[in-house]
Amino acid sequence: MAEDVAGKFLAAWEVFSRTCGQFIAPEPTYQAWFAHYLISQFGIDRVAREPMVKKQSFADSAWKSLVAGNHVRLDAVIMKRPGIHLPHYASRIDRSPDGTGLQRLHGMAVISELKVTATQGDGQDHTEVARDAYKLSMLLDELARKPEASVPLAYLCILDNHPTKKYRIESLNRHFDHVPHHPRLKIMLHDVQPMERRPTLPQPTDTIS
């Protein structure tokens, strides 16, 4: 029976969102929590964080032009088979044959990015979220150009748990009206509701002079 990769990823996302949406923490902590739930579904030997890909030689596209820098990292990836082998693309131990690290993405079942609104005091920047969507779109596009293309599932996950500010997905969609994301990319928004279930802030107390 074929593995239900999408179902397992969505199950991990749902449990993570419902469990961790009530907390305020640094972004790396949320990343660790999300990886924990992915490991619970796929096993520790299939989950990795922040593999690096060099994009300099990629074909020109609207997506590439909107992704800054020469390198990109992915928040969380799921390998198709057990066994993590993701050295830096220029590592002397095992240099990537294509010189970019892109070839190693063919061994992945899922590539993903995570945004958590509670990590941003003034609310989540829609441009930053769109940039992650364009990063994933660029990688999907480049992978699909290869004749041996094996294109992973791609998810942009947004946990909306800011204590006071609700994330406006319509503002993000205005970016996509201008430059649409790749059609294979799925954007998932978990809106922690009611607001009382979101992280609570300490109430100011009177000081005694």
What is the distance, rounded to the nearest whole angstrom, between the alpha carbons of the first and last residues?
A: 71 Å
Instruction: Label the structural class.
Output: alpha/beta
The total of helices stands at 5
Percent helix: 25-40%
Strand content: 15-25%
Tally the structural domains. Answer: 1
Describe the biggest sheet? 5 strands, mixed
List the uncertain runs.
none
Oligomerization? single chain
Radius of gyration computed on alpha carbons: 18 Å
Number of strands: 7
Give the ordered list of helices and strands. Answer: HHEEHEEEHEHE
Question: What can you see in these coordinates?
Answer:
The chain has 209 residues and is an alpha/beta fold. It has one domain. Helices cover 31% and strands 17% of the residues. It has five helices and seven strands. The protein has helices spanning 5-20, 27-42, 62-65, 126-144, 169-178, and strands at residues 47-48, 52-54, 71-73, 76-79, 108-116, 153-160, 185-191. The strands form two sheets. A five-stranded mixed β-sheet has the order 1-4-5-6-7, with helices on both faces. Strands 2-3 form a two-stranded antiparallel ribbon. α5 (169-178) links the parallel β6 (153-160) and β7 (185-191). α1 packs across α2. The model has no long low-confidence stretch (mean pLDDT 89).
Summarize the structure.
With 209 residues, the chain is α/β, with parallel strands linked by helices. Helices cover 31% and strands 17% of the residues.
Question: Which keywords apply here?
Answer:
31% helix, 5 helices, globular, five-stranded mixed β-sheet, alpha/beta, 209 residues, two-stranded antiparallel ribbon
